[in-house]
Amino acid sequence: DVKVTQSSRYLVKRTGEKVFLECVQDMDHENMFWYRQDPGLGLRLIYFSYDVKMKEKGDIPEGYSVSREKKERFSLILESASTNQTSMYLCASSLGRFNQPQHFGDGTRLSIL
Amino acid sequence: AQTVTQSQPEMSVQEAETVTLSCTYDTSENNYYLFWYKQPPSRQMILVIRQEAYKQQNATENRFSVNFQKAAKSFSLKISDSQLGDTAMYFCAFMIGEPDKLIFGTGTRLQVFP
After folding, report:
1. For chain A, what are the domain ranges?
2. Does the CA dihedral A10-A11-A12-A16 come out positive or negative?
3. Which of residues 5-64 of A touch B (CB under 8 A)?
4. What is the pLDDT of residues B62-100, one digit of tens each?
C-alpha cells in the first residue's frame, strides 16, 4: 500500500513565523501535491511537482512556496504565516502516468495565532 | 475553466438503505477521468471509485456504483446497503491532462444512522 506521511497532525504557530510542512511518500511516485481544505470550499491546489526540483503553481499559490529536493519528499513553506492561512493541509502523491489516482496523507491542521 | 459541483452539502441515510450523492461537472474536453473520494472523521482521504470518460459502462466497487451520464455531465455515487462506517465527507473530483491535476467539488457530508 502507498503511504503518504505528513510530519504533524496538528500545528500551532504565530503570525509572521516561517512554517514548514513536510510530506514523504514511499512508493517512488513522480507527482506530489499540496492542497488546502476549508469548509464549503473543498480542496484547493496550492502547488504541485511532477519531478525532483520541479514545481508548478496551483490555484492558490500566494503566500506559499515549495521545495522538492528528493523524489520522496515535498515540503510546503509559509514564508510569513498569517491568520488567513489557518486551515487543513493535505499532501498527495501519484504515479507519473496519465490519470492515476492520488494517494493522500492524514492532513495537518495548522492554526496561526 | 473546469468546475465540479456537489449540490448537497449534507445528507443522511439509515443503515442498510441506499443513498445517492450527486455531482455535476463542466468541461469541453472529451478525455478525462472522474473520481469519488471518501474522507472519514479520521481524515485520510481514500479513493472510492473512478470512471473513465470513454467507457460507457458505469463503474462498480462492491456496494459503491456510479451513474455516469456524459452528455449531461453528471456523475452520481450510489451507496447500497449503507453501513455506519460509510459516515464521511464525500468528494467528487475531475482529472484532465498532465500532470494529473484533480479538481474537487465542495463535498457532501454523509451521516449514516443506526
Report:
1. 4-112
2. negative
3. 30-31, 33, 35, 40-45, 48, 50, 56, 58
4. 999 999 999 999 999 999 999 999 999 999 998 876 657
pLDDT tens digit string along A75-112?
A: 999 999 999 999 999 999 998 766 788 999 999 999 99
The CATH classification number of A4-112 equals 2.60.40.10
Residues of B in contact with A30 (CB under 8 A): 99
Give the other-Cβ count within 10 Å of A28's Cβ. 11
Distance between CA atoms of residues B114 and B14, nearest Å: 6
Identify the burial level of B108 via C-beta atoms within 10 angstroms of its C-beta, where 0-12 means exposed, 13-18 middle and 19 or more buried. buried
- In chain B, whose CA is at the least distance from the CA of A96? B99
For chain B, the domains span 3-113
Nearest CA in chain A to B31: A99
User: Which CATH number applies to B3-113?
Assistant: 2.60.40.10
